[in-house]
């Protein structure tokens, strides 16, 4: 039987190639994602191995919302160095920074950090090899001199002697003109990382309030271990700070990056899983057709004594070989995908390194490919083994009406459960609404798998009457062919259904988010102009300068606030200025819309969730430990732009230290009758030196928010393209094998006068009907699931559900075209069938 199986594979090379290809497409993405993330992890680990080298203990803030390590603690350590076992104390000062490239525009880091720091010469650092000034430059000394890491300088087009602008994230927060006096060779700098070093006294002035350091690094005297030193320092360190050994600092950095990469890997593997699921149906369909084509061959084997178990094992052996070959090729393709991902992310700040194949991707790829293929082939193999030799000799192939009836009844029950779960989740009931909708979607997908054969008959029949009718008898024949084996039609179409269902879900979410943004801006924003920063935060001084521009009626800063209440972290905003002039909101219960200096107004949702009612006192605790009691003076109707609560000015000043104060955005109301474009231009002149500040009108602001969603959707659609490619290849595969199966039938049609062009047209129409059926089913259930999921995101501001009609129309048209294109090769093969040879092929 092994010889029979292997010779069967060798004798049908085209069939083998088509089946292997479906496995390759599924497994290659698994291998590619694992190789890529393993490579990036190893590269990052190599970088972080250079962090905190020579450091035995490091003191740093637990949260970013604190000022840093107080000078008083540093003085205590310096005073008792011998008692604590400290040899050397090194203070560092750092903060986010933006530097202009040679063209005057902000240097893009692709998401990698861009920080300013105090320059530490080798003699003053615990790791003398950490930073080296390259020949031709020197260390910064003056207040407007900087050294910059070599990779960032090269990207920015800067060199020793270049003059440029920098904007500091905290401290003075004003644009500065600086001169590059040195280029640094840094251990472990990533491709996008930027570090701008000032002289240490200048860094202290720019990056701190003068009473705190960003971190403090310590080395231990001989005989004191890092763990002992850390333990001693912890005893004198406030709870808002953390003390770590150098090894813990390195491991913490690795863990944070690896956690991000794990999430990224999960996303990649999720799309790989989609490809595998689609591929599974194609493999299942392929083996079902192969078994059906070999029914007489298997009957002969049964007649000469082959057992059912041997037949099953023979088919599974073929599946094993196909899975093994497909996985091996998929592994090679995965290396190419990993290289492509690395090239695409070269400008994103991720480090570049040699691809790491490793054992895990190889094992995962082989196991997934082989297991998926054998599982997909098991049902057809078992079904074939149960056919008696006499029945098989008749070559009678039916859909199994009784089986379809049972499947349809189960599908109807699951569809009803899915509809209820999606409706419950969409209403916000039943605990985690998104999970409820997700479970409903899974039930719905299983219902489609089971019930699609029952739907294939009437739906394909109706589509055939509409689209195939103009082609006369050719159209009726194509319709009959598509309806003849409903299981095969459903299985072939489901590959496309699943891919387009996901496209519809994502499209519905994307269009709804964009619609909600448009609604929120149109209904909740009276401001004419919005000032934002591409780095995420604005300096408070910007609003002060903008307020001096002619033609402005009011300027309102919206600042983020992070604190804890009863030990739980909360986040909201503080408005500086006349909030009602730039965004309308409705107070409930007759409360005043004015925010008292030491008060707070809250949204109706926040009031209900947290129990904060008018007249209550809420005690906020800053991340630095300061407590600020505030009084709830009113509740406003939920407004997306206002967020959960708005804090009074005096309370904000007490809660957020001045060096840490920053704005999310600034809203500007122009004076009546003044040219808005002219005011926007004048504000642009004022903010131009800040490099990353944007001044936008309402339409531009909506466009920017929508463009971020469009970018995300483009990435998701590109990744879903894998599933759609596999789905189209599945149609090609099915039609090609169908042509082989119907060779005698096609020969008879050619013998009675059907022209080659008519044969091709029949295959085109059949493929068209299958593709449109799959696309229609995917769009309907995808939009329904997308609607349910979108309803669960109301608490994140998704208030308007918008169906993606353009996407639906484009997708349906694309599916029809894909169906015709998928039929090109099978149709040509069918048209070349020689009548006499086909009829004689008994």
Q: How do the helices and strands line up, and which of them pair or pack?
A:
Elements: H1 2-11, H2 13-48, E1 57-61, E2 69-70, H3 71-79, H4 81-84, E3 86-92, E4 94-99, E5 114-118, E6 131-133, E7 145-149, H5 150-156, E8 163-168, E9 175-186, E10 194-198, H6 200-207, E11 212-213, E12 215-220, H7 226-234, E13 241-244, H8 246-293, H9 295-303, H10 308-344, H11 359-385, H12 389-393, H13 401-426, H14 433-468, H15 472-484, H16 486-524, E14 529-533, H17 540-546, E15 552-565, E16 568-576, E17 587-588, E18 599-603, H18 604-610, E19 617-621, E20 627-636, E21 645-647, H19 649-655, E22 665-670, H20 676-687, E23 693-697, H21 698-741, H22 743-751, H23 756-791, H24 805-822, H25 824-831, H26 835-840
Parallel strand pairs: 5-10, 7-9, 16-21, 18-20
Antiparallel strand pairs: 1-12, 1-13, 2-11, 3-12, 4-5, 4-8, 6-9, 7-10, 8-9, 14-22, 14-23, 15-16, 15-22, 17-20, 18-21, 19-20
Helix pairs in contact: 1-10, 2-8, 2-10, 2-11, 2-21, 8-11, 8-16, 8-21, 10-11, 13-14, 13-23, 14-15, 14-16, 14-23, 15-23, 16-21, 16-23, 16-24, 21-25, 23-24, 23-25
């Amino acid at each position: 039987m092994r010889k029979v199986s292997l010779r069967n594979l060798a004798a049908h090379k085209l069939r083998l190639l088509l089946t292997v290809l479906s496995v390759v497409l599924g497994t290659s993405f698994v291998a590619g994602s694992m190789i890529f993330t393993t490579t990036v992890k190893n590269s990052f680990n190599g970088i972080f191995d250079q962090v905190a080298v020579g450091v035995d203990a490091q003191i740093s803030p637990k949260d970013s919302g604190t000022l840093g390590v107080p000078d008083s603690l540093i003085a205590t350590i310096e005073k008792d160095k011998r008692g604590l076992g400290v040899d050397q104390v090194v203070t560092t000062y750092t903060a986010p920074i933006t530097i202009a490239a040679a063209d005057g525009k902000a240097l893009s880091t692709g998401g990698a950090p861009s920080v300013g720091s105090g320059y530490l010469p080798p003699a003053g650092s615990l790791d003398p090899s950490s930073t080296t000034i390259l020949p031709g430059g020197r260390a910064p000394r003056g207040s407007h001199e900087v050294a910059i890491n070599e990779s960032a300088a090269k990207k920015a087009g800067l060199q020793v002697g270049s003059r440029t602008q920098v904007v500091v994230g905290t401290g003075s927060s004003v644009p500065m003109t600086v001169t590059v006096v040195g280029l640094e060779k840094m251990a472990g700098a990533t491709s996008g990382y930027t570090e701008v070093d000032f002289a240490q006294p200048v860094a202290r002035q720019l990056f701190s309030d003068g009473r705190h350091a960003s971190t403090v690094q310590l080395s231990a005297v001989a005989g004191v271990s890092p763990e002992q030193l850390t333990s001693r320092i912890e005893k004198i360190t406030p709870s808002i700070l953390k003390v770590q050994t150098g090894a813990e600092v390195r491991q913490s950095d690795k863990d944070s990056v690896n956690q991000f990469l794990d999430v990224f890997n999960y996303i990649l593997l999720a799309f790989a899983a989609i490809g595998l699921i689609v591929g599974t149906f194609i493999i299942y369909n392929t083996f079902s057709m192969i078994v059906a084509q070999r029914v007489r061959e298997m009957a002969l084997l049964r007649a000469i004594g082959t057992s059912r178990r041997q037949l099953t094992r023979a088919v599974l052996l073929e599946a094993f070989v196909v899975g093994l070959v497909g996985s091996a090729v998929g592994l090679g393709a995965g290396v190419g995908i990993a290289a492509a991902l690395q090239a695409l992310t070269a400008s994103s700040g991720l480090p570049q390194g040699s691809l790491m194949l490793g054992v895990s991707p190889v094992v995962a790829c082989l196991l997934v490919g082989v297991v998926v293929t054998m599982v997909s082939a098991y049902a057809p193999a078992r079904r074939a083994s149960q056919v008696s030799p006499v029945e098989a000799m008749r070559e009678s192939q039916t859909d199994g009406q009784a089986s379809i009836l049972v499947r349809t009844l189960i599908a109807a029950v699951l569809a009803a459960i899915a509809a209820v779960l999606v409706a419950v989740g969409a209403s916000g009931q039943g605990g985690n609404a998104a999970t409820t909708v997700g479970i409903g979607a899974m039930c719905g997908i299983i219902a489609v798998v089971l019930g699609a054969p029952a739907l294939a008959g009437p739906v394909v029949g109706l589509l055939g009457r509409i689209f195939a009718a103009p082609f006369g008898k050719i159209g009726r024949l194509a319709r009959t062919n598509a309806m003849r084996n409903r299981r095969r039609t459903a299985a072939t179409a489901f590959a496309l259904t699943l891919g387009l269902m996901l496209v519809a879900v994502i499209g519905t979410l994307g269009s709804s988010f964009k619609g909600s943004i448009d609604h929120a801006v149109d209904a909740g924003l009276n401001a004419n102009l919005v000032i934002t920063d591409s780095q995420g935060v604005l300096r408070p001084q910007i609003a002060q300068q903008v307020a001096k521009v002619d033609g402005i009626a009011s300027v309102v800063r919206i600042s983020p606030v992070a604190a804890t209440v009863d030990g739980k972290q909360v986040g909201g905003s503080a408005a500086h200025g006349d909030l009602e002039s730039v965004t309308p909101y409705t107070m409930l219960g007759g409360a005043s819309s004015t925010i008292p200096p030491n008060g707070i107004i809250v949204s109706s949702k926040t009031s209900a969730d947290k129990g904060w009612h008018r007249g209550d006192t809420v005690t906020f605790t800053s991340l630095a430990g300061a407590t600020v009691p505030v009084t709830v003076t009113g509740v406003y109707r939920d407004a997306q732009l206002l967020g959960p609560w708005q804090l009074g000015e005096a309370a904000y000043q007490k809660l957020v230290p001045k060096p840490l104060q920053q704005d999310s955005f600034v809203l500007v109301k122009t004076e009546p009758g003044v040219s808005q474009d002219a005011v926007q231009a004048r504000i642009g002149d004022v903010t131009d030196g800040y490099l990353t500040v944007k001044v936008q009108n309402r339409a531009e602001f909506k466009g920017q928010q929508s463009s971020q969603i469009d970018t995300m959707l483009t990435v998701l659609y590109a990744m879903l393209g894998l599933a759609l490619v596999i789905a189209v290849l599945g149609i090609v595969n099915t039609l090609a094998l169908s042509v082989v199966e119907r060779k005698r039938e096609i020969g008879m049609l050619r013998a009675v006068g059907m022209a080659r062009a008519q044969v091709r047209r029949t295959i085109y129409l059949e493929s068209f009907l299958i593709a449109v059926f799959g696309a229609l089913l995917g769009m309907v259930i995808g939009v329904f699931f997308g609607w349910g999921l979108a309803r669960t995101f109301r608490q994140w501001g998704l208030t308007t559900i918008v169906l993606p009609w353009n996407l639906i129309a484009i997708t349906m048209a694309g599916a029809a075209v894909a169906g015709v294109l998928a039929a090109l090769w099978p149709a040509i093969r069918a048209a070349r069938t020689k009548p006499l040879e086909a009829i004689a092929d008994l």
